[in-house]
Amino acid sequence: MTETTSGPARSSRAKGGKATKGLRVERVHTTPGVHPYDEVVWERRDVVMTNWRDGSVNFEQRGVEFPDFWSVNAVNIVTSKYFRGAVGSPSRESSLKQLIDRVVRTYRKAGEDHGYFASPADAEIFDHELTYALLHQVFSFNSPVWFNVGTKQPQQVSACFILSVDDSMESILDWYKEEGMIFKGGSGAGLNLSRIRSSKELLSSGGNASGPVSFMRGADASAGTIKSGGATRRAAKMVVLDVDHPDVEAFIETKVKEEEKIRALRDAGFDMDLGGDDITSVQYQNANNSVRVNDEFMKAYESGSKFGLRSRMTGEVIEEVDAKGLFRKLAEAAWACADPGIQYDDTINHWHTSPETGRITASNPCSEYMHLDNSSCNLASLNLMKFLRDDTASDSPSGAAGSMSFDAERFAKVVELVITAMDISICFADFPTQKIGETTRAFRQLGIGYANLGALLMATGHAYDSDGGRALAGAITSLMTGTSYRRSAELAAVVGPYDGYARNADAHQRVMKQHADANAAAKRMDDLDTPVWAAATEAWQDVVRLGQKNGFRNAQASVLAPTGTIGLMMDCDTTGVEPDLALVKFKKLVGGGSMQIVNNTVPKALKRLGYQPEQVEAIVAHIAEHGNVIDAPGLRQEHYEVFDCAMGDRSISPMGHVRMMAAAQPFLSGAISKTVNMPESAGVEEIEEIYYEGWKLGLKALAIYRDNCKVGQPLSAKKKEEKKAAEAEPATAKVVEYRPVRKRLPKGRPGITTSFTVGGAEGYMTANSYPDDGLGEVFLKMSKQGSTLAGMMDAFSIAVSVGLQYGVPLETYVSKFTNMRFEPAGMTDDPDVRMAQSIVDYIFRRLALDFLPFETRSALGIHSAEERQRHLETGSYEPNEDEVDVEGLAQSAPRHVQAPKPGQQPEPTAAVPAPKQAHSSTELVEMQLGLNADAPLCFSCGTKMRRAGSCYLCEGCGSTSGCS
């Protein structure tokens, strides 16, 4: 993209008066004399975003201008998230042109003011190339750039921050304040608490210290109040503690104990759902926790020896613990509640470019940015699918049917453009604290990364968990980082190296050599990755040579971030380093409506694998119907793995995710934001193995999430019931037996017939009641589920009906069967019960709403959609006077109640398909595959979110539960 001038090239004058040579910028995508805007077709669209739970309009702006090739989702998200100005006012942005111009012109002006360009013509080419890349979704800056750059508010460009805290009350209170200011701006922060003395040490006054776990409570409460990233349990906050801290066991157990509290309170009738009134009473829920382990501890774990916990004040060992036992406690906690994750301290600092200034002690909330305390990193991500080239029609020898290549040359030029722009942003950026601003300006940390890796691998016929897939991912990552540091060295020749470089020059050059050596040692696999490795090798040779001559402009260049909202802005199928979610997608249509489509990458993959057009058509049709490739006509079994996804019958194994991270890690300045998903059946030993293998494979950080580990009945429930039964046993041997009398229903009785769908499973429920005395029988009919499930539901409904007629209160059934978890489970078509953990869970929630008094079911935490909406508006679930009966008990409004004619048995309604509706790809996958994705609902629009690194992303409106 750009090159330094040489020979008679004109000089520019950098800020401070020093004459320098600027950058010559070459055109790659643009045409001289033609603006990028003039090469695309623009159209006007209306953006109306609703909360499908209640139909309310969340956002509306009509007549916005976008290119015709931008998807509905991308248009909605950019309009609602990134356009500035009050909606409805003349100052409100209404075109993508205004948004891109606001950002690009600010970057261009700063580049000219600070001597980056050799001439005004080069500045104009930079402007046009940057505009083209953003317009065509080739890359995107992180969200703070779109929020802030070019506006009157502070020009904050960074999304990732690292703070520090020392062992003093003044420093601890500063931590609370600084973290709050960062959260207020919508960003995230992380820090290491290991400098704070433990609860096993003494204060100067002679009393015992509180310990870091105690001070975490105050910071957690602050984060929960500010609600950075939305009211979810996974806020944009990271807390790290070293493994040799005397309070490490208490730190490991913090969230485990709180999760047990959540279960107990929920079972007692408290509202412990995400965003519920009572969830705020639970502590430590607003942060991701990580234990920082070192090589000494890991070697003690390997050998089964003791490991010393050290005083924070003197460094002396004050307690010895069994390393294997402590590591097992770490794995047990992660198994129980997904926290804490693990960070590998010696590995992190082995790749540290600035160790003479200070060690790396912490990370940002998603664990991809790791550098000095009190620093920040601004991010940008490239859309890898934009560089996949179809060579079928080319004149090259490889231009046979299905031939593809990765355009390494164009990719490198775009990386140069983006790195140049990102470095320019530090010249004008504002920062939330003075210390962060000073450190960032002195070290100029950048975080270039990519998205759509999963889609790229599938499109090129590579399984995500394969040597070929890992080789291509490693090659692209190596080329990206090598090109970034080469550009950094070229910038150093133009505008000078970063301020901290002189002190850290030897260490920085050593790390560059480590990257180059890793690139040379990497295994080449096929015709796709080999040319990329060759380009990366050339880049790293230039890095070593130019770095010795010029130094480097940036202490850090690359990370792999979650690419949540910006991934949707670029219309990426996959985020960050993640694989594809599933083979079917949910797509919104222009003018309203939606449709289910098979991933566009599937036909590309089949073509690459050599299938003929008619075979591709048949396989795609099979996927559209079944959601997977199993038994697809004509598809060879050895190709099944190419289509493995994050969810479904052929989901990628946990170690497959870890191995992919290991393939990319040696070629990154920072780390990788990724959570390794594990099935609910995974054991503690498997988590322990993954954490151990992460260290062996050279990762910097790792986190796992076991499905459903944060939900379910408490393990002690059965024992409690047995204890209560034992206490109720009469003390005497004499037993008086009372037999209930069955009260049968009359021949004619009122009834309610309800059609429902739970997790894609359709059914019908007929509930008949006594004329004057509540529910008396239930009939259940399941459609298209096979004889086993249908027969079991028939038997179950008979058993419940007989129980009701013998006097078992409906309330007892509701308390016993709600929250029971088994498949099918997931989204329902009932506005009052949007999510069900099983068919039984749904049935008894529906019966409670139809037949139990308000106060009874409210104590069980069961409310209608109207009541929940009332609670949001007034803070109370209580009904108005019209909904209260003469005895003062609120009743549910009757639904479709009709009394059959005398002597007529109630018949189920004619079998018609239950309405199915998905609002995101995650919900579509649940319906298609008949499974339940363990993810929260978006609090803005109500759709089910999906994972993006360590956070969750909403495809409906672009909201995230953590970093932007």
What is the compact description of this entry?
The protein is of the alpha+beta class and 964 residues long.
Uncertain segments? 1-19, 228-235, 393-401, 711-737, 881-915
If you consult CATH, what is the topology of the largest domain?
Anaerobic Ribonucleotide-triphosphate Reductase Large Chain
Global mean pLDDT: 84
Radius of gyration: 30 Å
Give a count of the beta strands, DSSP E runs of length 2 or more: 29
How many H/I helices? 28
Tell me the β content: 15-25%
Outline: globular
| Number of domains as seen in the coordinates | 4
Task: Return the structural class.
Answer: alpha+beta
Percent of residues in helices: 25-40%
Query: Major sheet: size, sense and barrel closure?
Result: 10 strands, mixed
- The CATH architecture designation of the largest domain is Alpha-Beta Barrel
Distance between the termini: 28 Å
CATH class descriptor name of the largest domain: Alpha Beta
Cofactor: adenosylcob(III)alamin
Domain Ribonucleotide reductase large subunit C-terminal: 158-705
Protein name: Vitamin B12-dependent ribonucleotide reductase
GO molecular function, one term: ribonucleoside-diphosphate reductase activity, thioredoxin disulfide as acceptor
